[in-house]
Amino acid sequence: MVRPYTMTRGRTKAPAEERLDLIALVIAEEFLLAHPGGAYAIADRTLSPEHLDIADLARREPHSIAELAATLDLPVGVVRVLVGDLIDAGYVRVSRPVPPAELPDAGILREVIDGLRAL
């Protein structure tokens, strides 16, 4: 068993932590998607196996921070730090869902749908 602080080299916060809430989607960068061997094939020695596991999961499909933590059986704080490292290394990027306040009103969407049906 590896202690969580060992995986993060004693760090508790990622440089990009303000963007890394539980529902933030981790998406692999294009060069990682294009490489047939995945993260393990192109990794440098600064990345741990946990980093590479996260990168490979993101390579298959976007995952939220919470999904990555559950899938890898790691604490959320550790996953945040590791994803921050991967962002800095250029392996992944993070996309946040649109906040509910910025979504269009359901009434407007219904009106648009009714208008399209009327055509």
Characteristic key phrases:
119 residues, mainly alpha, 3-stranded antiparallel sheet, 7 helices, 8% strand
Question: How would you portray this structure in words?
Answer:
The protein contains seven helices and three strands; from the N terminus they run αβαααβααβα. Helix content is 50%, strand content 8%. Strands 2-1-3 form a three-stranded antiparallel sheet. The chain has helices at 4-7, 30-34, 39-42, 49-60, 65-72, 76-89, 106-118; strands at residues 25-28, 63-64, 92-95. It is mainly alpha-helical and 119 residues long.
Write the layout of secondary structure elements.
Blueprint (H helix, E strand, L loop, with lengths): L3 H4 L17 E4 L1 H5 L4 H4 L6 H12 L2 E2 H8 L3 H14 L2 E4 L10 H13 L1
Antiparallel strand pairs: 1-2, 1-3
Helix pairs in contact: 4-6, 5-6
Q: Tally the beta strands.
A: 3
Number of helices: 7
Largest β sheet strand count, sense and barrel closure:
3 strands, antiparallel
CA-CA gap between termini: 63 Å
Question: In what range is the share of β-strand residues?
Answer: 5-15%
Mean pLDDT: 80
Radius of gyration: 18 Å
User: What is the helix fraction of residues, given as a range?
Assistant: 40-55%
What is the string of SSEs from the N terminus onward?
A: HEHHHEHHEH
- Give the neighbour order of strands across the main sheet: 2-1-3
- Give the low-pLDDT segments: none
Shape: elongated
* Coarse structural class: mainly alpha
